[in-house]
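note to self: the first set is below, dont mix up w the second
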Amino acid sequence: MSMNPQPVTQRRECHSTVHGIPQSGFTLLEVLVAMVVLSIGLLGLAGLQAVSLNNNQMAYYRAVASQQAYDMADRIRANRAGIAAGNYDNLNNTTPVDPNCIANNCSAANMAVSDHSQWNANNARLLPAGVGTVTCVEGLTVGCATNGPNWTFNITVAWTEKNTAANATQTFTTRFAP
């Protein structure tokens, strides 16, 4: 019995040749294309991250504004004598001098001025160009001197927000009855 060995076949790599010189740069081209695609994807993610940060900042300002409005509502509720005297009826966006009611024994009117001063100082500190107003309303009319114990207040907090076009003034308004 004779054993005929099987012929050994060699596997040949396919390479392109130019002037008889083997060329093997096709893989490098694929890597470069993949790098370009990856770079474009990473730029897109960076843009998405920037937009997300901007939206988070705007949401933060809105949360601070609502907290500040409710802070003023609590201050008003705590000074019933000031409400009855009309000391909170129309607080504008200027910050008055604080009469320092912590150190001094203040009247209801001075407590209202102190609340207004501290509140607007906090608005300016916590929000960009932050200011606040309080208006006592009675239905569609403004002014609560004759409304008795059923006062209704509009508390508005305004601030400046940066967006892509320009700076825009934003407001948060809440209405409450103490």
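second set (the one i keep forgetting abt)
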Amino acid sequence: MKTKNFRSRLLSYAIPAVAFGVSMPYAHAGEWSANASVTSNYIWRGLTQTGNESAVQGGIDYAADSGFYIGTWASNVNYGADDVYSYEHDIYAGYGFETGGVSWDIGYLYYNYDKEAEFDFSEVYLNVGFGNFGAGIAVLADTEAAEGPGQDFGFGEAYYASLDYGFEVGNGVAIGLHLGHHDGDFAEAFNGNAEGYTDYNISISKGGFSFMISDTNVKGGAAEGAYDNDQMKFVVSYAVDVAL
């Protein structure tokens, strides 16, 4: 993760897929599903997780009739030639429901990396959708990372807030607009940036294909070297979903 524009796979009662930047299963209630994708660049919250190289990703999800869901997802990552990161493995669970035309989703997400990294962490999240609009907040729950001088990695001390809007333009073509802000001591330590930052993107999708233009105002280490996270990025992806 140094993370993600989390797979936009929503439950059948949640908002359209183009509207979210958090990970949720794409499955009809009461069934298992699997997903796989290839992307030219793994972008999470506006930042590359693969040094601007390609990634192969996939996961398995279960959505119950009650609204409860659980799933797992994995991707290759690369944060530099001299680091110990090679993979990201996520486990998440939550509950989604709709009332009065508003969809709600609350859950827990655990990010697992190579053992040597000692930087696993978890978040709790809440997403709300109305029509084609979506809003979400994810806050730090816990981490195995050690705090540095002047840092606080306690519950709620880092967060990611996002706004999304998605719509179709015809012939199965969908447009997604996203705005997010990541801040807090842990967010800064994990990403290597000097302070909180804002990311924004526009995506165009049809079938399993998507094209995204993404940019940020990030500064510090996250914007330097091979990351180039302060530069506009163009990403092409293809994803398939299969009911099991």
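remember for set 2: The CA atoms of residues 38 and 129 lie 27 Å apart.
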